[in-house]
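Table S2 (continued). Query chain:
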Amino acid sequence: MLGRRLVFILAVLPLALLAGCPGTPPPLRLPDGSATQGTAWGTTEPQDAGTELASLLARGDTDAVRANFTCTKTIVGLDKPLINRGTVFAAAAGTRRTQVRWSTRAPYTSDIILRPDRVLSRAQCEQEWDTVHPSGKPGLTTLLAQLGAWLRGQPETFGNLYRVTAQSGSVGPRVFILTPAPNQKDLLRSVARIELELDPPMLVVGLGGGTLTRATIVTPVGDRIEYRFTDVERHARLAASSFDPTDVAPTTGP
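Corresponding output:
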């Protein structure tokens, strides 16, 4: 059982970020331009937590992003947490679709590439890449696709998959709790809840803000996988091979 949990924990990989400044922003808007019920900061007007989260993530909309990550995995039954470091890449793959690559580089090397039509993975010491169709790993594939989409500021992937509640107050970073809906059986096998922490929006309109700084996945057995992101580059110019099964880590394109 512990071995199976380790497989999942080493497979699930990150997402992302940018610093913001606290303040009172103008009314937040959804990707279609419609206004939310109120502002996320500096207001007493009620606002649905899911609408607020979607609005904040949409402020970080970008065609491509890269960031360094530190992943701390606290596993039930292990005395010490496992800490991994690497880089995450996410980019558009057609209309409203995202392709993602998580490249772990310390203390071991591994890569997971998520494309709309396939999932490729390879761990340290493996010679060949494992390739499966997303339907072969429905829970994991759904989660990875959503993380990449949220990283790019694409919140429409919430759909009816989660129930969203806001945990923190109206000042400073916002923490949202996502729990899979009862009918999402594949997700429920892997995820008990997801915690997303976002910085406050920037004061200057048009400069984004409300960016994701932490994502924590809690499994049904109580394991916690926490990702924190640094050195975030939005509108990143990724190399053409960023989402190919290559031996060399992807680099910024010319």
